[in-house]
Amino acid sequence: MKNMLANEKGNIALFVLGMLSIIMILFIFVLNLGGALATKEKSATTAQQASLTASSVFYEEMRAALNRYEFPEPESDDEEPEDSEDEEDDMSYEEYFNEKLNDKISDLSSLVAYSDWSANEIELEAFDQVLSSEASTRADLLFLLRSQSFRGEVITAVKDAIHENGGVLEEAELIVKNNRFYVRAANEFESTSLNGVVDEIKENVYQETAGPKIDFLNLVWGENETIPLDED
């Protein structure tokens, strides 16, 4: 009888230990699943912030280039039409561009199609349209924009943004296509382990997001370019 009771108690103890082990494994599984989803969200945020940074720095570089551009000197033999605007005498190119930009902002703001756009969105859209038009008709301006060292500035800023958001540069990429900056980046996922039962996992969780459309990006930068960010 004593042996039977001892065996029964032993079986119960083994059953309880087994159940506790299963519960512990399920708990770690749920914990790791939650961690993986959280890392996926972090990676999406990292990629998004990096793509927005690329767009912001690109705009800044274009603005700086416009400030350095001057109207080309007219050739002495050329006669200007009587109704042409004497742009060179009246204002600098920066003033001329800003005047066109302000006019475009006013035009867009008055349109129903842009009624739900923020002031910043309308200003960027106006900038895109004006610069696209100017770069398409002024070959020397387009040459100046393309010759600027903005690529290095954009790439460095994207790398910094990834680091600042806890991301890793391993296999990260900056992609230029469809007039947008796309960034593929990752944050590292590290799982919770259980000795002898659940192994530790370390893995980069990648996400790709795009910045806002920039109408003149392909015109100035080029199309369909993929830049590895894990290279110096």
UniProtKB/TrEMBL annotation:
Residues 10-54 form the Putative Flp pilus-assembly TadG-like N-terminal domain. InterPro entries: Tad_N (IPR028087). Keywords: Membrane, Transmembrane, Transmembrane helix. The chain crosses the membrane at residues 12-33. It comes from the Bacteria. Residues 72-91 have a biased composition (Acidic residues). The keyword Cell wall biogenesis/degradation does not apply. The keyword Membrane applies. Residues 69-91 are annotated as: Disordered. This is Putative Flp pilus-assembly TadE/G-like.
